[in-house]
Amino acid sequence: MSEGPSARRHACEDIPMVRVKTIACVVLALTVPAVAAQVLRGGGATAPLLAYTGDTSLVLQTPGTGSLLGAYTAAGNPASTYCPTGTGTGKQILEGDPSHPVNNPCLGTPSGFGSTGLTQPHFVASDLPLTTTDYATYQANRGGTKSPVQFPSLVTSIAISFNQPHVTSLRLTEVQVCRIFSGQINQWTDPQLASALTIMPGMAPPTGPITIVYRSEANGTSYNFTNHLSAMCGAQHLNVANQFKTDAAFATAAASYFPSYGRSVGVAGDANAVNYILGNVGALGFTDATDSVLAGADVAKVVNVSNGVAYDPMDVGNPMPVNITWDVVMGTSGWVPVVPATGCIGVVDPTTYATPASGYPILGVSYLTGSGQDNGAVALNGVRTLLYAPWNPAIRAATATVGPGTGSAFLVSTAMTMTRMDTCVN
């Protein structure tokens, strides 16, 4: 995956989402001091980058005050750094892939997870649950008796970004979303789309084909977006587009519909997808909400079918209750149990958040992953407490970058306890 450093803007730039701008400016105004000699090195997914660090720049970051990891350090825990690599590369680093060492470059800087000579990262963020391949690769590289750990951390939103200079707002129903991404609506002049468009006074409606912008590589954003499409558009709900599949590769998930698109273009990396949309009139695609808003892209409101309310993608809503399933990884045709069962790999079933009853309806769940063994005596307690940080009530209360208006929300489950961390992380 390749995303240039210019793809992300400093979070204090002028953006339409006032709350996010204010949060990001407060976060970036201060630097968290190191309170312990051990610095925890991690990184990975870019979707929760604002939540974790307070900034969406693709550089090696020291989390700011008010961010989740900043609040973690301010509570008396070790300092940390976060290297945005994307979910796929983050997983490879966790798994000990020789071609992706711990000092693997971040997306926008030559510095890696810390370039400290570590043999394994302290934590990795991922927008995709561990798969059978991930688990097998981890054990092959790190030892057959060793295993990764995985815990749900946040819910994030996926925006529908677009570029039409004379359209002041785009308010999409779920039927329209399904028809756009299935190619049933492939022109901006389609009468089925007219009700969604608010045109600038005195200007003509947009014309020409809709250019569908999608991620060309397998990634968590595509997985969660197609998780929504396959559930909402299929027979169990709207029954307007039945061929979507839930898959990390959009070209696979929507393969049946590509011939119907007016135009389409695959772009590697979320920030590059946002940049393509910003630079090409007529483009429309799915992107991480915080990336889109902080880059200044126009984003659609989407009507939740359960209550008929149109939501901005930054309005994820209140903390989301979830049921966590333990000791399974994602296989090619379902969930596969891991042996031995340790209670240390937790998954939120994607079907349970595919069609939420309230709030913005296109969501994904992010995870924090790590190693169950070999964390070292100095870092051990820090790794345990960091993986638990999204569930720690005091740290949650001190975090300004998660909650209303931020594009992310905390999760709620009685299954997540510090006792579990002490047992799982050694």
TrEMBL record:
Coiled coil: none
Transmembrane segments annotated in the record for this chain: none
Annotated PBP domain residues: 61-311
Family to which the UniProt record says this protein belongs: Belongs to the PstS family.
Protein name as annotated: PBP domain-containing protein
